[in-house]
Amino acid sequence: MADRLYKQYDPEVLKKLQHYELEVLSAFDQICKEHGWVYFLHYGTLIGALRHKGFIPWDDDVDVAMPREDYEQFVAYCAAHPSEKYAYVDANLRMDYTKGIPIFYKKGTVFSLDDIGWKPGIGIDIFVYDWVSQDAKKRNKQIAKANFYRRLFYLCYRDPLIPFSGVQYYLAKGICKIARAGLKIFRLSPKALYRRFEMVSQSEINEKEEMTTFFSSNPIRCCMPKEQFEVSSVSFEGHSFYAPKDPDKILRPIYGDYMVIPPEEKRVNHCPEFLEFGEE
């Protein structure tokens, strides 16, 4: 019994979901380009652009990467210019937002994997990129500490996905329960853990060469030179969006040969327990 994030959608439901996500991405893209802020399509969204010229057929989310400086300006813009259609949220703005990854979403919609905490809307995930040390020892220490706080924050609300089966699966579940009990005993709140995560993520502000996103489950694989934000363009569902300077150097360390379509048993999506499209 290993946890796995893949479920079949009704084709019409998935098509409608992707349409909504494309709408939000287009709104985000317009705001960024109007203000000169950079981002690029990331993870499966970038693979979809390169391999399918749009969504991976079974994919149900949109990921973008953004450097910290531009991201903070975007967040400030959203706070100063509230929209009737779209909104931004992160775990600082809502401590009942349990996902952690910042999102830009369409108001009046719901896309939630479970019923824990506030249910976020249909939108895009923003993976913020911060500086890391070029010294391997310092970089690994920073990544280890950030991973520690990010995982504890997540564990405050739910167990992580466990890729094991049999005895290993139940042993891992037991460890999660013990760890969650420890958080309560030491009164470590999600708010405090998230702030510590952010402090560690932004601790190498004097470094200006290598970057990674600490919101990733594997920040080592996401390390990249700052030049990747000298963005190019890529076609996605008939629209032009930003892509990294060299997409292959971003994707290959994470996925290997990403241009090969994986068999169904290796596909991943995030089919939610709660999905609402709101009023048309």
Explain how this protein is built.
This protein has 280 residues and is α+β, with helices and mostly antiparallel strands. Strand 9 and strand 10 form a beta hairpin. It is globular, with a radius of gyration of 19 Å. The termini are far apart.
Shape: globular
The SSE string, one letter per element, is HEHEHEEEEHHHEEEEHE
Count the beta strands. 11
Cα end-to-end separation: 39 Å
Low-confidence stretches: none
Cα-atom radius of gyration: 19 Å
User: Mind summarizing the main beta sheet?
Assistant: 7 strands, mixed
Please estimate the helix content.
25-40%
Mean pLDDT: 91
What structural class results from the helix and strand content?
A: alpha+beta
| Total helical elements | 7
Percent of sequence in beta strands: 15-25%
Overview features:
single chain; 280 residues; alpha+beta; 7-stranded mixed beta sheet; two-stranded antiparallel sheet; 7 helices
